[in-house]
Amino acid sequence: MALDNPNLKDVLTEVASGALQLPDFQRQWKWDDERIRALIATVTLKYPLGVVMSLHTGGTSQFKPRTLKGAESAEGRTPDLLLLDGQQRMTSLFQALHHDAPVETVDSRGNDLKCWYYVDIAKAVGAPADRDDAIVSVPEDRKLKRDFARRVVLDLSTVEQECDAGYFPLHFVFDTHRVGEWQQEFVKNRPENWPLWGEFQAQVLHNMLSFDVPMIKLASTTTTDAVCAVFERVNSGGVPLNVFELLTATYAGNQEHVKEHGDYYRLPDEWKQIKTVLTSAYPVFGRPEDGPEDGLSSSDFLQAVSLVRTWEAKKAGAGTSVSCKRRDLLTLPLADFRRLAPRVAAAFAWVGGFLERQSIVRTGDLPYRTQLVPLAAVRALIGAETDTPVADERITQWYWCGVLGEMYGGSLETRFTRDVEQLIGWVGDDGEPAPDTVSEAAFLDDRLDTLTTRNSAAYKGIYALLIKQGAVDWYFTDSPLAPAQLVEHAVDVRLIFPKAWVARNEPTRAQYATSIVNKTPMSLRASKSMSGPPSAYLKTLSLESGMRPEWFEDVVATHLVDVDTLKEGDFIRFYENRAKQLRDLVRAAMGKRTVFRDESKW
To answer: Is 158 within 8 Å of 141 (Cβ atoms)?
Structure first.
């Protein structure tokens, strides 16, 4: 690492030539007009600009480079330096002081503008405190208007008018020839301007021409991980980069791929195609119309790829651990990604089928998206071994222990690793002990009381288990709820005893009205008939079903509900009975007893 102080003119020349570019992971950024004027004023006063940071490429960029805005004519050149920090400042200065075109910026309200920047010579030679006022911007046509654009208050559309007004155009300030020509016009027939021009040269132009940019230059040997870490620490934009963006730039800069295929590798296109296939078959992974990051994310996919890659490396003796930490993803070779991506995509498709068998088919009903990562990795590693009866039973138990034990709500990278290794050994029926996710999972009996919203994985899990165990809708009574019907009939969690009814009739139990114990999966159509106390709406629903009353009561019971407690309006007995049945449902899914707590509250 070295600290240099190149001249601003030289830095902007490097921007124009493409010698200084951005790594492609840098987001486009546009400063507003006010900040650009303040920045120019800083340069004219030769005040400190702040350190910028760059990276030597060594002639071969590890990231796909991209020119700064306005320097697109230099596209295709391999840069000498990549700008890691200072994009906004350098782009603004390049466009305002070097580029012979209007600056693309925004006003204080965020509306797009195209401006030219000038300095009012008379104001600029005054006190430094007035320098901000001396820097002005005018619209693309160089006419400043007022009164809703009806009155022109400043017209700088010709050189003669610029000189008459005493406004120097800043976009060619570093072009000595053009500055000289403008000076001649400024003093021609205006001999009184000579002293003013002399002061302007001394107080403004000299400062700009001698302005240095403090620049830290990182060596070309700096690792990708270190570059990204440095960038995120110095990035003043305040928006952290994700691994996918960083890998996109790294893969696009892979020259071996360019030589072999004639073009750079487009990771976003590959991910979009994978995601489209997955979401088309299994909506639980997201909605295609909401983009490739809705639902299952690119980071989830990359983590699964990394788990597979590091597991294989460990088995081959080429690695020491299974891992999917950030540094593992940032060093994931393009060749390995291209080799493993099809397998992992197929594994996620299998996961989609597995979730469907658990009656989880919509993104909003998915308890943990993250739990799918190790599951997909396991499928990618052992393939059809997951389809044996023993393997299916154990994977299902592992899944529900993770959901109902709420095991995937904290730090995940270590759990990912353990679950992949332990689940493979357990599924293979090699006498290996159950994974930690199974052995450590616990469901406290009174957890049911606090499961009130979809923020909880266990809440969604019990909802899915009710459907899986055979709940029949109270309006569409022909057959148990099936995955395809959840969307078709707008099935959602509905209250059994109305909240207002519980508050009025059992005020000391009002807090339990929103518990999952008092909720069940039901179609929108059925919920429209569920008004008033259960004793009333059950009669309505029974008539609408066209069934004999005792048959309809059997339908109600498929939701693990004691029908008599509904007919009698006995909320306390209903709650106690259903809580017991839900605990039994949870125990069966987890394959272990839940932890007993105190029921004396009733």
So the answer is: no
Q: What is the C-alpha separation between 241 and 250, in angstroms, rounded?
A: 13
Q: Which residues pair with 55 in a beta bridge?
A: 82, 218
Checking DSSP bridges between strand 81-85 and strand 20-23, what pairing results, if any? parallel
| Phi, psi angle pair for 22, to nearest 5° | -105, 150
* pLDDT higher than threshold 60 for residue 598: no
In this structure, the number of other CB atoms found within 10 A of the CB of residue 212 comes to 16
Tokens (6 digits) for 2: 């070295």
Nearest-angstrom CA–CA distance, 246 and 29: 17
Q: Is the pTM for the entire model greater than 0.85?
A: no
Write out the two tokens for 228. 């990204």
The three-state (H, E, C) secondary structure of 396-430, written as one string: HHHHHHHHHCCCCCCCCHHHHHHHHHHHHHHHCCC
Question: What confidence score (pLDDT) does residue 225 get?
Answer: 64
Is residue 299 within 8 A of residue 312, CB to CB? The reply is no
Question: Helices (DSSP H) in 143-266: which residue ranges?
Answer: 159-165, 176-187, 193-200, 206-209, 224-234, 243-252, 255-261
Cross-strand partners of 472: 480
Asked whether the beta carbons of 411 and 373 are under 8 A apart, the reply is no
Residues 52 and 43: beta-carbon distance below 8 Å:
no
pLDDT in tens, 407-444: 998 767 789 999 999 999 999 876 789 999 999 999 98
Give the pairing type, strands 103-106 and 112-120: antiparallel
d(CA 387, CA 186): 85
Q: In whole angstroms, what is the distance from residue 341 CA to residue 323 CA?
A: 17
Share of the chain above pLDDT 90, in %: 69
Nearest to 368 by CA among 324, 419, 404, 329: 404
DSSP helix, strand, coil percent of the chain (3-state; round to 5)? 55, 10, 35
